[in-house]
Amino acid sequence: MNKQSFLFLFLLGVLTFTTAQKKKITLEEIWGGEFRTEHMDVLRSMDNGTQYTILNTARSPRSSSLDKYDYETLEKVETIVASSDAIPYFSSYTFSDDESKVLLATEVEPIFRHSRLGIYYVYDIASKELAKISETKIQEPILSPDGSKVAYVLDNNLYILDLTANTTKQVTTDGSKGTIINGVTDWVYEEEFAFVRAFEWNSDGTKIAFLRFDETEVPHFSMDVYGKDLYPYQHEFKYPKAGEKNSIVTLHMYDVASGNIADVDLNDPYYIPRIKWMHNPNDLSVQTLNRHQNDLKLYVVNAKDNSVSILLEETDEAYVDIDDDLTFLDDDSFIWTSETDGFNHLYLYGRDGKLKNQITEGPWEVTRYYGYDEKHDRIFYQSVENGSINRGVYSISTKGKRKKALSTEEGTNSAAFSSDFTYYINTFSSASTPYKFTLHKASDGKLLKEIKDNSALLNKLEGYEIAPKAFSTININGYDLNMYMIKPADFDPNKKYPLFMFQYSGPGSQQVANRWMGSNDYWHQLLASQGYIVACVDGRGTGLKGRDFKKLTQKELGKYEVEDQIAAAQKLSDRSYIDKSRTGIWGWSYGGFMSTNCLLKGNDTFEMAIAVAPVTSWRFYDTIYTERYMQTPQENPTGYDDNSPFNYPELLKGNYLLVHGSGDDNVHVQNTMRMIEALVQANKQFDWAIYPDKNHGIYGGNTRLHLYTKMTNFIKENL
Which GO terms describe its molecular function (predicted)? Predict the structure, then answer.
């Protein structure tokens, strides 16, 4: 034996010995919170620009406090308010515009993904007086700009509490379950346009603009709730499936002084996904979309006479995305994001809606807009110009000059700026570094202080068998796709390993990202420690690589994405250390739709698949999401049916585990039941599990532990 061979074997033995001394991650640790990271919860800058507030909470005894900190010293200045006998534990807070009062949420219970009911209090900071808004749980309370009133929704109607007079006025009276909703969104708007409060105070508190949803003609959906009583009952709500009727949504203007409500004529738009007041208290901006969501109009409504004029119109052959980046400057010129040039970038428009200039440009995407420092003419934003798996923080002038990279570490950076843009707190993580919080100067990104770094978690993980997440690209179907791979810590290139792939694959999504681990990453580490190679490939249709890459899957959801996963599995299986006879794939929601299709259409490539809460026909999913990418089933029947897995169950050859929660209000268990019936009638054997009353997240108590134990055992038995 030569010296080099001896040295290699010696080092391999040392590595094996070292690895053997380390603990392996367990499912109980993952779902018991053993690897939980510390964060800075609900951080907000004060108007003075020199201080910020944080919501601090404790589990035992359960308590909460709203604390004020100094940016320069990072020291706590004062506790503004803390839970006590008078004020129950609160889980969120909102200041009035003048910061004289703060709204506190207690006894909060979820309705759907974003919506909540709760008991709310208004705390007067100067007098330390506390006012309960309502004895009944309400939705979406918001203080008027001067803090003298609170508007909120109760039982689908809009109300206003006058804190000075201690009187409550009911603004609307026609709200009722299943028919009329005032001031909050219906199910599909909440889920797909991602907002709940559908009313806004203007800047001087004289007007409230609100949306009214008439969901009378929206098809009725119900699902059984099994509970713990003798009889189950049905949970009922309106859910518009693809091609069906949506709510009729209208815009209205309430005058606070007179109590009058005026209707605003927007020429019958199909969707109204955003309303936002401009700085002028009489000007309201309104965004509307057609049903195909490929024609967006930005209107301005004059609240004096409710006249309407158009500021901007944007069209796309596929669809136009809705976001919250629209920002009005002091003169009501505005910043807008658009994919007009093929990548998502920032644009500056005048008060009249005329384009002044494109602010950012290049073959990369702006991923977040942070704000505008008018004093120094600096726009702050986040982008992927340092690589599509990374996020960096930058500043630039409105003319597109003087660009500065403020973040320096490669990974995922995000920023929370002080209100005067003197400071920002940077949150950084990467695949190898848990979240770090640092204070910086906004002018040049200079590091001022380290705040929190999760070093205790990193030290704890030193005792565990953790394999690095290796990033690369893989050329599939003519595209260089982002990929990561996790190999066992004691990887031996001379051995062959089973390949287990993970993906989501939905339009504009990203799974291959240089950020710290989530629960699934820890589970993938567990699988790697048991001898599996885990890989993830972001195929065509995913995000942050330009408009054309993202929108290539238009009208064909599940076609190109499945082709890419099958081709990636085949190409990876050609590697000497991959056992091509042992290839599996899994995913959740859209990822479950994908893993099911991969196992069927790629039945000579994949030997097993796990699908959690999958869509099995886009005909069953909601209007806004589905029609954005597919148009309606009436217009595009083959696009819906050619990639619906229960239409070809006879293709199943491998081992298949199908999982769903019976209380899933988002992807209904109907999807899984139809898949089950198709497989049964095709006489195909498979495994399945239904979690009673669990929603799309399938969690609560030991549910996640049970689910991941089942999935782990299924992998060990079948891969």
Answer: dipeptidyl-peptidase activity; serine-type endopeptidase activity
Q: How far is CA 629 from CA 318, 412, 667, in A?
A: 7, 28, 17
Give the C-alpha separation, 567 to 477, whole Å.
8
CA 217/CA 536 separation, integer angstroms:
42
The pLDDT tens digits of the residues spanning 635-694 come to 999 999 999 999 999 999 999 999 999 999 999 999 999 999 999 999 999 999 999 999
Q: What is the pLDDT of residue 20?
A: 58
What integer pLDDT is reported at residue 61 of this predicted model? 85
Is a pLDDT exceeding 50 seen at residue 551? Answer: yes
| Cα-Cα-Cα-Cα dihedral sign, residues 602, 608, 612, 617 | positive
Q: Sheet with 423-429: list strands edge to edge.
A: 412-417, 423-429, 436-441, 447-452
Residue 361, number of CB atoms within 10 A of its CB = 15
Three-state SS for 709? helix
Indicate the burial class of 602 (C-beta count within 10 angstroms; 0-12, 13-18, 19 or more).
buried
| Class in CATH terms, 470-717 | alpha beta
- Helix crossing, 519-529 with 703-718: angle to 10°? 30
Give the mean pLDDT of the chain. Answer: 95
Q: Which residues of 229-294 form beta strands (DSSP E)?
A: 233-238, 248-255, 261-264, 271-277, 283-289
Tokens at residue 334, please?
């505005």
Per-residue pLDDT reduced to its tens digit, 139-170: 999 999 999 999 999 999 999 999 999 999 99
Cα-Cα-Cα-Cα torsion 669, 672, 678, 679, nearest 10 degrees, comes to -140
Token pair listed for 335: 């910043």
Q: Hey, where are the domains in the chain? A: 470-717
Which three-class secondary structure state does DSSP give residue 663? coil
The set of long-range contacts for 261-266, using a CB threshold of 8 Å and a minimum separation of 24, is: 261/171, 261/172, 262/306, 263/306, 264/209, 264/301, 264/306, 264/308, 265/306, 265/308, 266/299, 266/308
b/e per residue 109-141 (b: at least 16 CB within 10 A)? eeebeebbbbbbbbbbbeeeeeeebbeeebbbb
Beta bridge partners of 143: 150
**Chain centre to alpha carbon of residue 444:** 30
- Predicted structure pTM score: 0.94
